[in-house]
Design a protein that fits this description.
Structural class: alpha/beta
Strand order of the largest sheet: 1-5-4-2-3
CATH topology: Oxidized Rhodanese, domain 1
CATH architecture: 3-Layer(aba) Sandwich
CATH superfamily: Rhodanese-like domain
Amino acid sequence: MNPIAQIEPSELRERIEQGNAPLMIDVREPEEVAQGMIPGAVHIPLGQLAGRLDEIDQDRETVFICRSGYRSERACEYLEQSGFDNVVNMTGGMIAWYEDEE
């Protein structure tokens, strides 16, 4: 199995600012998302992912986001096994996203 593609928070932020944002899916739990999400991201908790694959465009690059990068990487692995090719994990999750802001 190929290693999961990764994107740094700084690179993702740059792409959003340039209007070149990929599809972004936040797989955290509702109480985590309540503390803030990346603007434009879609919330699909990891536990609901299997039942909501039809909401994800297989042809579009999709970046998965969680708190630390672990659950989003699991999401990427699951989607690759489900036949998705354009999945990317945001390295370090929201912890790194907020650190990058400073």
